[in-house]
Amino acid sequence: MSILRVIRDGARTGEENMRRDAELLESHRPGDAPILRMYRWSPPAISIGYHQDESGFDHEAARRDGIDVVRRPTGGRAILHAEELTYSITGTSPGPLFGDTLNTSYQLINRALLRFLEMLGIQADVSEGESRDDARGMVCFKSAGKHEIRVGGRKLIGSAQRRTQGVFLQHGSILVGSAHCDLPRYLRPGTRGSEMLPEQLLALTTGLGELPGSFAGMKSGEVDDLMADAFARELGLSLEPY
Prior knowledge:
By secondary structure, this protein is an alpha/beta fold. It contains 6 helices and 11 strands. The protein is about 25% helix and about 25% strand. The strands form 2 sheets. The protein has an 8-stranded mixed beta sheet with strand order 7-8-9-10-6-2-1-11. Helix 1 (about 15-25) links the parallel strand 1 and strand 2.
């Protein structure tokens, strides 16, 4: 295996984005070349984890504000996708490149993400995991789980992975701004996390737009190029448009 296939999808609806990722996972076969997909969201969308209870979300309020509500093919908690870059990686595990476990694949992908941030002039680290109390919440960016990337103790990237029949899909949100902090507005009163104010969530997270580095002066295509290059270098593969 010597190729990393690359998809640059631009901005799509929440339904299209999650369908595309689900199709990549479904069509992938053990031993196929890994696929890096980079995309954005238009209009903004709330994605709900695969096993997450949907009853706590105010769908009517989201629709009123022009926000899609979709279910992800991966687990984890809800995210409001607005000001962000999103990546997905589809690959083989068990296998020689991504290893045999969820842990080894996460570690390799994190190294690629850290390399990408370093190329932007941003120094980041990987969280050792959240508290049990934080893990019960409805909001992904309320805390940093194990394997998630932070800058200065504040969460920057949230990722989730699904594994099936020798292949996996991992996708993740790389925050650019603070629009994700509006998510508690779309939780019904009494739902865990609905009590959070946007400024409380903002204090726990950070975005590329507020960090020192080269990101502010780059166009979206240039950022995609840099991310693809970082993944190719870390995985030791050559890039091929797909």
